[in-house]
Each structure stands twice: as C-alpha cells, then as structure tokens.
Design goal:
Strand content: 35-45%
Radius of gyration: 35 Å
Strand order of the largest sheet: 37-63-64-65-66
Helix content: under 10%
Distance between the termini: 77 Å
C-alpha cells in the first residue's frame, strides 16, 4: 500500500486549513511501524530502538532493535544508524555514498538495474528466494514467526538452509552464520564447508567475504561480480538463457532436479526436513538409493559427484573430475606437480612431467621445437637477427662494442650516458629514431615484485639499469644487459643502502650508494661490471639521481645534510664539497655556459665548476621535488611544484613562468621546451613560454619527454607515443607499457614501472 505524501497533504491545507502538526500516515509499509504520527524502523532507528520512544544513548547505535556500542550482523555504522552498505542506496558501499535518482544499490555498487537473480523492490535489490520482507515478490511479507525459503513463507527453512532468526541461511558458506547461527567469521576470513578459513576450499572461489561456485552462481558467473542479466542463468561459468544438459532452469539458477532438495523432481518441490532428494523423489529419514550417500540433504553418488567425491563436501578442483571416488585429471591431461596439464603442448612439461623446453622453444606433439623465426645453433634456438653470438648466421659473433641489428654486426653508437642524455639534461639524442618501431626484447631487472625499473643508461652495446628500492630491506643492485637481445651480461650488488640512478661515461659506470657512514661513490667497468674503485661521501638514507662528468670532473649530490660534491677522476681526489644546499633526495646537477647548476627545494644555484662557489642564486616561488635543471646554455628550465619556470643564465633572473600540473623535468630542443602537464604533452617557446602546440596521447602521460629523429617521444604507464615535430601528429604508439625513455644505436629503451626494460628497434 502506498504511503500518503506530505506534498499532497500540505496542498490541502490551503483549502481546508490545518494545524501546525504534520499529517499522520494512515498505514506504514513493513517493516516500518507508526510511532507518534510517523513511520519508523524499530530495528535501526536510534530514536525508537525496539519500541516507540526508546532512544539510544549518544554513543550507541540501534542494531537489530537493541541499543549497542557498535553494529552487528555485518552492518556498518553511519552516524547513529546501522546501515547495510551492500544494499542501501543512501549509503552504497560506504557511508554517505548515495546512488543517483533511479539507481539501486547492489553488492555495494550503484546500478541502473538489479544484477543476476535479484529483484528490484523500490530502491533496493532483494533476493526473493530468502528475503522475508519480499518473499517471492515485492509485495509479500512473511507473517511474524515465519521465514522465507525458496520464495515461500513458512515456519521452517527448506534444505540445505537453516533457520537463523527470521532468515534462511546456508551454514556452509554464510560468513555471518558459519557452521552455526550468529557465528561470524573475521573480516579477513571466509566461510567454507561450515568453518571460518583463510581461503575457500573444495573448488569454490572467494568473492568478497563469501565462497561461491562460479560455475552456477548467477551473481558471480565465471568470475567474481560477473552478474548475469535478468532472465539469464549461470551454467558452466557462462551466462545463458538456458541450462546445460541434465539441468533444469529454476528461477535464476540451473539445478539438478534429480538431486536438488529445493527442486526435487521439478522447480519449487522442496523436500521436508529430514528428507533427501534422489532420482527426483523425496527420501525420508536420510535413506538414499543404492550407491548414493546422504550429504546434508542431497543424495550424492560419491563415486562420480565432483562436489562430493569419495565423501561429502569433497570438491574436485576445476581442472579435475571425480572418477571412482577420486579427483583425477580429465581426458588428455596428466598431473604434473599437482596440476593437470597437457604434456603434448605444455612447454614446462613437454612429453613428460618436468621436461621444460628452452628459450625460444615451444612444445609440439610432446617434443620441444624451435619457434618460428629462430634457427637451431649448437642445440639452441636463436634469433639470428639480434643475437650477438649468432648474428645473421650461426657462430657469427659480434666484436666488443658492437650490436647485432637485423642480422648484421655494427659498431654501437650514440650512447645515453645520464638522465636526459647529456650533462645539460636536454633529453635530445642525435640517433635517427624513426617510427614505426618494433619490439626486440623485454627483460626483467627486478628482484622484487612490483619494484619499478630505474631509467636506463647506455654505453656502446650495454644497457645498465636497476630497480627503485627505498626502505625496503632489498639489497640495491645494477644489471647490465646486451643491447642486441636483452640478455644479462653482469650484475653488481651493494652490501647496504638505497638504490640510486647510474650514469656511464668513457666505459665506466658511476653510481652513488647512500648508507649513512658507509656512503660511497662507486665506479664499475661498463663492459664487465668489475669494481674499479670507491670514494667515500657523506650521506644518510638518500637516493641519488645520476652524477655528471665534465672533462675529468665528476659532480654529484651528497652530504650528510645535503650538498654538491666534485671529484677529479684522473687523481680520484675530492675537489670540493659545498654543504650550503638544502638536503633533498633525487636531484642531479647540470652543466652549461661555464656553470654547474644545482636545484634543491626552491633554490636554483649556479656554481663555479672549480671551487663550487655559488655565483648566483634564484629563489623560485615554489619548491621542487624529484626533478633536475634542464638548460640550453641560455636559460635554465625548472619544474617547481606544478609550474614551469625559465631563468636567464646571463642576468640570473626569472624570465617567465607558466602554471599547470607539470611533473618530472622538461626537454629542450631547437628553441622549444617540452613538458608533461596534466597528462598531456605541451610545447612552449623557450624564450617566452608561449604555448605552441599540445598533444594528448592517452591523456595519462607522466614521464619526461625526449627528442630524437625529428619526433618527440613521451610515455604514460600504458604506452609510448611519438609526435612529429613538424606536423605535431601522433605517428606511433607502442604495443606495450611505457616508462622512462632513453635512446641508443637505433633503439628506444623503456624502463617500466613493473620492473622490466624493453627495447624497440627503429624502422630501417
């Protein structure tokens, strides 16, 4: 029955005249009752908790009609009320998250319609099979003392459900009534086979706090939260309008009417308590037919039943079936290490368990064979177009410093020694990188799952990278890969400290390793990884961006409380240390116009390269963070906060600034400054800051851009993009993830946030 609205009642006051009291509803909709002229919910109303006028204390809530300090039954406290955030459209998924007009709340998410087999009743999605307030349909409310089972009101629940209060629950899987009524599992646990556990058992899958059979559950069909559309059922993990062979469609579910006690011999034919269903007939006192065993209220054939294999509630895994009371692999499958696999095609178990195919091999008809595009060389399957040991033909080995490109050994060229390539960090390379690019190889440099890769540096035919670690307990390390095929050539670990960015000059790798009193500058041979020397520095728990080498001088950040170091590489002596800089992690000095530039906090300083003395200092309006100064010899370009600034070197003045959402550091080429702001690439006039053009990519660009071959290359975490410098048109998008970019010998290197380094080869 509809409740009269206040608007209609108030409108009548203008004609008949009314008192100041609100109108009294003639009838309240269940479960609400009338209290002092209004409809209230005695179960959840803190002002009328359990009875009209019974108010809970200020620190209490009303839960199931009782004033308590906290909510029970899986509800969430929102203000003074206990709310079911799974179904309340005013608090959907969390307190205060309201669904839009016309939407409903289902499983904690707002939706235009109810998922799976739920029924829309007003603004809520309900399960008409078990909801006592909407039993079978929206209008049917079970009388006091009755419960809703299989869509019908009664005094008892139909098997396999058990009555808990006014609801029918399955004690095997209900996390609020696990094994017995009101036995709740912890937030991190699930209810499986009537016990609270860390994980689901018996072939069921964890979806939220419940264990579900994704083969038949219309709310989680094939995968969690994959709800079937209204009118569909879930059969074998696929939403369909009909059930498979031997199954009957009953409402939203596919059932075995020969054995289902809720639908025994037909939909809705529920076996009474104590009876089981077998061959579509009700069996009393738990007596099953020959060859069957009573499992709960189901007569199961434990020799063939995948859910009661060899005993009740023994579920076979999804890749197994029940045969003679044991879970075994299906036809054509072999159990290898407890996993059912096809040994005719599995490269890890080819022909026999444990026989693994090698690199560039596949398993065909139970034998390992070379994949397409490879050649058998001395028992190995080799990509001769990129192998430095079999370049073009088997046995053709590239010389030291050469790289194998398209099957030809050639001298490696155009290395990428530091962040932004050069000592000015311009981000410009002379390599004629031309799209479209083809993926040559991908190699993981991460020893820690999820640790991002450091930006790569390149020396001849070596790619040197590492992973980002900070306060992780992981020993920092560097890895050198062959530029031809990505295979690891050497690795070097540091005993303690934090992972810093390397630089490579003249065949030597330089990297700072901060470990408090053991902080050092390391030098390694780029070709072999052997240690050349270490020099002590002051430091704490810092992460250093790459040093730069100008002539025979190396400049790097360091110091116990921040500073700029200079070392002479010919004598290995410390030239100077300037300790007046602010202590900041992750910055690198730059060199141009006879100065060394440092950037810490909001201070851009120009230092004398011989003494470290500050020649001038410009204080920026905003602080900098994880960035570096970029210079074209006329101006220094800096990202501070979210702004882009330009400082004139000759006058030591801030000449222009532009707001935005800038990140990282820019690139500068041919009087144009390129930066990433708000997920887009922006090109500005280097002299004035005027916007020249913009490009969006995927709208999530986040890594520093670089310039090579007449294109701007820029990346998001998802992909790398190339934009033509003349037409400003996007000409290429990578098929794989993006990251920090570097260039060398016709290749674009991508260091990703997932710990891999990928190499793309330029078009010929």
């Amino acid at each position: 029955m509809l409740r009269p609205t206040w608007s209609v009642a108030l409108a009548s006051c203008f004609v008949l005249g009314c008192s100041s009291d609100p109108p009294v509803p003639t009838e309240c909709v269940t479960p609400s009752v009338s209290c002092a002229g209004g409809c209230v919910d005695l179960v959840a109303d803190p002002a009328n908790c359990g009875a009209c006028g019974h108010r809970c204390g200020d620190s209490e809530v009303c839960s199931d009609g009782t004033c308590l300090l906290d909510c029970t039954g899986g509800s969430t406290r929102c203000g003074g009320r206990c709310i079911d955030v799974e179904h309340d459209p005013a608090h959907c998924g969390a307190c205060g998250v309201a669904c839009a007009d016309g939407e409903v709340c289902a499983n904690g998410k707002c939706s235009a319609s109810c998922p799976g087999g739920t029924l829309r009743c007003g603004t809520r999605c309900v399960d008409p099979l078990f909801d006592p307030l909407h039993c079978g349909d929206c209008a049917t409310v079970c009388p006091a003392g009755q419960v809703c089972g299989a869509g019908r009101c009664g005094v008892e629940c139909g098997p396999p459900s058990t009555r808990c209060g006014d609801r029918c629950v399955d004690l095997r899987f209900d996390p609020k009534s696990c094994g017995a009524c009101d036995v709740s599992c912890a937030d991190t646990e699930v209810c499986s086979s009537g016990a609270c556990r860390d994980a689901c058992t018996g072939g069921t899958k964890r979806c939220g706090s419940k264990c579900v059979d994704s083969d038949f559950d219309p709310f989680h069909c094939g995968a969690c939260d994959n709800a079937c559309a209204p009118g569909q059922v879930c059969a074998a993990g696929v939403c369909s309008v009909s059930c498979g062979v031997g199954l009957t469609k009953c409402g939203t579910r596919c059932v075995d009417a020969a054995n289902d006690p809720l639908n025994c011999g037909g939909c809705g034919r529920t076996c009474i308590t104590g009876a089981a269903c077998t061959s579509g007939l009700h069996w009393r006192s738990g007596i099953c037919g020959e060859g069957r065993k009573l499992c709960g209220s189901l007569c199961a054939d434990t020799l063939t039943d995948d859910r009661n294999c060899g005993g009740c509630y023994v579920f076979c895994a999804t890749d197994r079936l029940c045969n003679a009371g044991a879970c075994v692999c299906g036809a054509g499958k072999t159990s290898c290490g407890g996993v059912c696999t096809n040994v005719t095609t599995d490269p890890k178990n080819c022909g026999l368990c444990g026989v693994a195919c090698g690199v560039n091999e596949e398993c065909s008809s139970g034998a390992c064979a070379c994949i397409s595009g490879t050649t058998k060389c001395d028992g190995r399957c080799v990509r001769t177009d990129r192998s430095p040991t079999d370049c073009g033909t088997c046995g053709t080995k590239c010389s030291a410093g050469q790289v194998c490109t398209r099957g030809v050994c050639a001298t490696a060229s155009a290395s990428w020694p530091s962040m932004g390539n050069d000592v000015a960090h311009t981000g410009v390379s002379t390599v004629a990188l031309k799209p479209p690019l083809s993926l040559q190889w991908t190699t993981s440099v991460s020893s820690v799952a999820g640790a991002p890769a450091r930006p790569s540096v390149i020396d001849k035919n070596r790619v040197i990278s590492g992973i980002q670690t900070y306060y992780s307990g992981v020993v920092p390390a560097l890895r050198a890969l062959d530029l031809s095929d990505g295979r690891e050539v050497w690795s070097a670990s540091f005993a303690t400290g934090y992972s810093s960015y390397p630089a490579v000059y003249g065949g030597k790798v330089y990297v700072g390793n901060a470990a408090s009193s053991s902080t050092k500058l390391w030098s390694l041979d780029a070709d072999s990884g052997s240690l050349a020397w270490t020099l002590p520095m002051g430091g704490q728990s810092d992460v250093y961006w790459p040093p730069i080498v100008v002539g025979t001088k190396l400049y790097t950040n360091g110091g116990t409380y921040g500073g700029l170091y200079c070392f002479d590489l010919s004598t290995l002596a410390q030239v100077f240390f300037n300790g007046e800089l602010e202590q900041v992690d992750e910055w690198s000095p730059a060199s141009a116009a006879g100065f060394i530039f440092s950037l810490t906090k909001a201070s851009l300083r120009a230092h004398d390269p011989s003494t470290g003395t500050v020649k001038w200092k410009v204080t920026l309006p905003t602080d900098t963070d994880r960035t570096a100064p970029v210079t074209d010899g006329t101006r220094v370009y800096v990202i501070g906060g979210t702004w882009l600034y330009a400082v004139d070197i000759a006058t030591a003045k801030l000449v222009w600034s532009v707001p935005g959402a800038y990140t990282g550091f820019p690139a500068v080429s041919s009087s144009t400054v390129f930066g990433v702001s708000g997920g887009s690439l922006l090109a500005r006039d280097a002299a004035t800051g005027t916007l020249q053009w913009a490009a969006g990519g995927d709208g999530a660009l986040s890594y520093p851009p670089i310039v090579a071959g007449g294109y701007v290359w820029v990346a998001s975490d998802a992909a790398v993009f190339a934009f033509d410098l003349v037409t400003h048109v996007q000409t290429w998008k990578s098929p794989g993830p993006g990251g920090f970019l570097s260039v060398g010998s016709d290749r674009l290197l991508v260091a990703t946030s997932t710990g891999t380094v990928a190499a793309y080869l330029s078009a010929p």
